[in-house]
Amino acid sequence: MKIQKLTVENRPKVYALLQNAFPDSVYEVTLVQKLHEHERALYEWVCIHTNKAIAYIAFSPAYEGKEICGLHLAPMAVAPDFQKQGVGAELLRFALRQEAIKNQPLFVLGEPGYYKRFGFEPCKEPVCPFDQDNAHFLSMRNSATAGFSVGYEPEFKTAALPPGQQGKKRRKR
Q: What sign results for the dihedral spanned by CA atoms 94, 99, 104, 109?
């Protein structure tokens, strides 16, 4: 298994991985495709095994108003055949050590039990617009001021969450 920055050549492999990892949702693959189409600033890594993408992680800017206040971890995916084998954990630990990530405030909408193992903590501020009670919204190195809703790149909304999936974990374990 080799972890590397995502290249344009590996994008189709990542799209296939996202479709495979989230078979009941088109949100994740649509989101990443739209972020790529609009050339949004992303930090992305992929695990390649036997010329196939088996895991992927991306970070995009988090906003307080128009100012960047950190990064969102989203999405993260592991191919079903490689889940529960530590591949996702290894990729996340790798990403958290990278210069562009290691000192930034980070936010993630996901399963608290999973992300707490890496230092993420539940957060009440800022408010996540995709999680009504912030039950699945976690942060790391968060010094956000009270009273704002954290912003995402517009593609997070235009990729359209299916009805009934707001506030639910989007990570398959």
A: negative
pLDDT tens column, 48-67:
999 999 999 999 999 999 99
Closest C-alpha among 73, 5, 14 to residue 44: 5
Distance from the Cα of residue 86 to its chain's centroid: 17
List Cβ<8 Å contacts ≥24 apart for 155-162: 155/31, 155/34, 155/35, 155/38, 155/40, 156/31, 156/74, 156/130, 158/34, 159/27, 159/30, 159/31, 159/34, 160/27, 160/30, 161/27, 161/130, 162/25, 162/27
Dist CA 45 CA 166 (whole Å): 26
Tell me which amino acid residue 105 is: P
Alpha carbon distance 17, 56 (integer Å):
8
Distance CA 153, CA 134 (A): 19
Q: Does pTM top 0.90 for this prediction? A: no
Where do the domains of the chain lie? Answer: 2-158
Top-level class of domain 2-158: alpha beta
Q: Which two tokens stand for residue 131?
A: 């999680």
